């Protein structure tokens, strides 16, 4: 996963990573928000989900201490990272800034 993850975040297009856990209720809320963000942003950005229980080393590498944690990468660079649930409009605008 680590090699594949590097390929994904090295994209010219912004990539929003959703670090989540299947048992996390706020993560389920965030997931439905991200579906709408994807509709809004279209091909302008990618949205990838990473289960922290399946990939704990990846979560640790990027300092994920709570879920959900969202991070935006472009050209391999971490541009933004925040924990907690975020709304559709904030995330759509954020991704448009980096697109």
UniProtKB/TrEMBL annotation:
<dbReference type="Pfam" id="PF00085">
    <property type="entry name" value="Thioredoxin"/>
</dbReference>
<keyword id="KW-0676">Redox-active center</keyword>
<keyword id="KW-1015">Disulfide bond</keyword>
<dbReference type="InterPro" id="IPR036249">
    <property type="entry name" value="Thioredoxin-like_sf"/>
</dbReference>
<dbReference type="InterPro" id="IPR005746">
    <property type="entry name" value="Thioredoxin"/>
</dbReference>
<protein>
    <submittedName>
        <fullName>Thioredoxin family protein</fullName>
    </submittedName>
</protein>
<feature type="domain" description="Thioredoxin">
    <location>
        <begin position="1"/>
        <end position="99"/>
    </location>
</feature>
<comment type="similarity">
    <text>Belongs to the thioredoxin family.</text>
</comment>
<keyword id="KW-0813">Transport</keyword>
<dbReference type="InterPro" id="IPR013766">
    <property type="entry name" value="Thioredoxin_domain"/>
</dbReference>
<keyword id="KW-0249">Electron transport</keyword>
């Amino acid at each position: 996963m680590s090699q594949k993850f590097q390929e994904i975040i090295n994209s010219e297009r912004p990539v929003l990573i959703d670090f989540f856990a299947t048992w996390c209720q706020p993560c389920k809320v965030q997931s439905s928000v991200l579906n709408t963000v994807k509709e809004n942003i279209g091909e302008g950005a990618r949205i990838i989900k990473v289960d922290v229980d399946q990939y704990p080393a990846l979560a640790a590498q990027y300092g994920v201490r709570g879920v959900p944690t969202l991070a935006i990468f472009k050209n391999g660079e971490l541009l933004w990272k925040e924990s907690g649930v975020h709304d559709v409009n904030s995330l759509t605008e954020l991704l448009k800034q980096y697109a």
